[in-house]
Amino acid sequence: MSYMELYEKGLEAFSRKDYDEAQKCFEELLMDGYNFPDVLNKLAFCKSIKGDLEGAAELLKRALELNPRYSEAAINLIYVLNELGRYEEARKVQEKIKNATLRHQEKVVDPFVIGKIANLHAEIGERYAEIGLYDDAIGEYKKAIKLRPTFVDLRTRLAVLLRERGEIEEAIEHLTQCLLEKKDYIPALIQLGLTYYVMGEYELAKKQWNRVLSRDPNNSVAKLYINMLKNIKE
Fold first, then answer.
1. How confident is residue 102, by pLDDT bands cut at 50, 70 and 90?
2. Which residues contact 83 (CB under 8 A, 6 or more apart)?
3. Which domains does the chain have, with CATH numbers?
4. What is the DSSP track for 27-86?
5. What 3-state DSSP class applies to 223?
6. What CA–CA distance (Å, rounded) separates 217 from 232?
7. In 10 A of CB 192, how many CB atoms?
8. Which of 40, 50, 163, 186 can bridge 171 by disulfide, Cβ–Cβ 3.0-4.6 Å?
9. What are the C-alpha distances in Å from 98 to residues 40, 55, 108, 197?
10. pTM for the full predicted model
11. Looking at the predicted structure, is the pLDDT value of residue 98 above 70?
């Protein structure tokens, strides 16, 4: 399960007030290194519901360290501190959030939100591609990877669209970048092989598809394309 799927699962549990399941999901995200303010805030809420106010306070402090203007986490922390009888500490938190807002500090955007926006751009791009508006589709995918440069699936799809528009060199650049981000990423290798194929660079194409088979010996797509090359040579 990807971190986005785990996050969505946690949100669904949280929304239906299944705080045990939500806590399990959010704790797993933290264990995997996804220490994002929203995860910390929601996990803190789960803990506070169960009476673990000290644990909730620590999580909320971490959320505010990452994003000093996260007002929801600040309000929750003020509430928890008051419940613990730590009134002076609660007052200081209230003053900090007020000062942070007044100084207009740069807002820290939740990476999950950025990822969702990137995927929305990709979805719009697909709709454009379906009706043949490739320039608009490419534009949307470029917006997507600008937000999330490491999303290799989106970058691979962008490369395919570029190839279909005849932008071969740019397509190769993006596919190469995918493989720098994720070595032996099979969809990128398949598409890089196809790109070399349309250029008439059959040996380079074969090299990419053989790399696929070295990782996945039963990959039917790579086998099909290599057999296609044999027919050309014959």
1. low
2. 53
3. 3-102 (1.25.40.10), 111-166 (1.25.40.10), 184-234 (no CATH)
4. HHHHHTT---HHHHHHHHHHHHHTT-HHHHHHHHHHHHHH-TT-HHHHHHHHHHHHHTT-
5. helix
6. 22
7. 28
8. 163
9. 21, 24, 16, 60
10. 0.56
11. no
